[in-house]
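Standup notes, structure subgroup. Blocker cleared on the pyridoxal-5'-phosphate input:
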Amino acid sequence: MRPYSEMTKSELADAKAALFKEYEAYKSLGLKLNMARGKPAPEQLDLSMPMLDVLDSRSDCTSGGVDCRNYGELLGIYEARKLFGELMGISPEETIVVGSASLTFMYDCFCRAMLKGVLGSEKPWCKYDKIKWLCPVPGYDRHFRICEFLGVEMIPVKLTEWGPDMDAVREAVKDETVKGIWCVPKYSNPLGSVYSDECVRELASMETAAKDFRIFWDNAYMVHNVYEDIPMLNILEECKKAGNPDRVYMFGSTSKVTFAGAGVGFFGASKANVEFTEKQIIVESISWDKMNMLRHVRFLKDVDGIKAHMAKHAEIMRPKFDAVLNTFEEKLAGKGCGTWVKPHGGYFVTFIANRGCATRINELVKAAGLTMTGPGATHPYHDDPDDAYLRIAPTYPSAEEVKKAMEIFACAAQIATIEKLEEAL
Ligand code: PLP
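Run returned:
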């Protein structure tokens, strides 16, 4: 198939008419599909139902002599700190197990930094006229929302397949009001990037004008490989080697391992950061849900147990990712309607439409009953200057539904491309 950009005006008109016919047929199906958020499918959640049987009224609810039914152990039960610490590649003493998810704790860490500063801060961050934060794009909308809510100015930096554009990062951190960076280092949301060794080392060792610079290392997808596992360096180790042990805050959760929003969240950092954090969080909590920690440890057992469990998730997810990638290949390859990225893991496929086409594609698919993450969501302030990025979340619907949805999407991408080309004629 020739790219649409090489077609004559009348060829484009013919192609568009045929595509609209196809589109109207899709519309008449009256579909109602929501692919807006990266949610586990019910079958994935079913994998963790036996966790609910791990504890019952006859269970011994102690862990290392601690009665999990009672107050205490603000940093989490030792068994859970050990397990999730090991998952992050760090020691139990560098790990805090918190709440039932991770985003709350990211927000909490940010708020405490604004109100009180972090370890080594000269003053609370809210005392600056303005602080700035680096946001690799495309990125996770909820990270951007935290910055927006707290009045932190976001600076977009381009995310590549192997991490953020480090030239842009190194330049930006010369400004002492740039206090940190969001990173989703493995199978990033949404691009699926995995930070290269070089990138991890540079983030850990680069000179920053702010002495209290923090990397918010949101490793939400650390064990979520769909195709193959891509190894990644341990950022805390690299920060220690570079003489910046306190630079990184690591976050993770079992939201997409066991139950979303009803798993456990965890935080990893230097022992000094953990001690500093403990002194602050003692104000807000006496202890988190240790019964849930106990349930998780007894169900998942060890890191190999988590990996085996995640292999079952991958089995369920892979046909859906295949449905997206195969449909794009079949319907769009060679037509010049945009590009897409095959991720190794995570929850998304990113479609990069031709400049100025994302909004139109979204409009067309929406009218045909397909709800997607809106254009701009992948960028700070909802501002995608190229109007190009669209995030596809294939995990929740069935593979058949994903295939149908992607056929509609491919049809819409072609219509939008032709319309754009016609505008320029
Ligand atoms: N971080 C990233 C990058 C995510 O994509 C998500 C959910 O989609 C979360 C965090 C939310 O994690 P949690 O459920 O642990 O708050």
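Discussed briefly. DSSP finds 13 helices and 15 strands in the chain.
Next: hand off to the docking folks.
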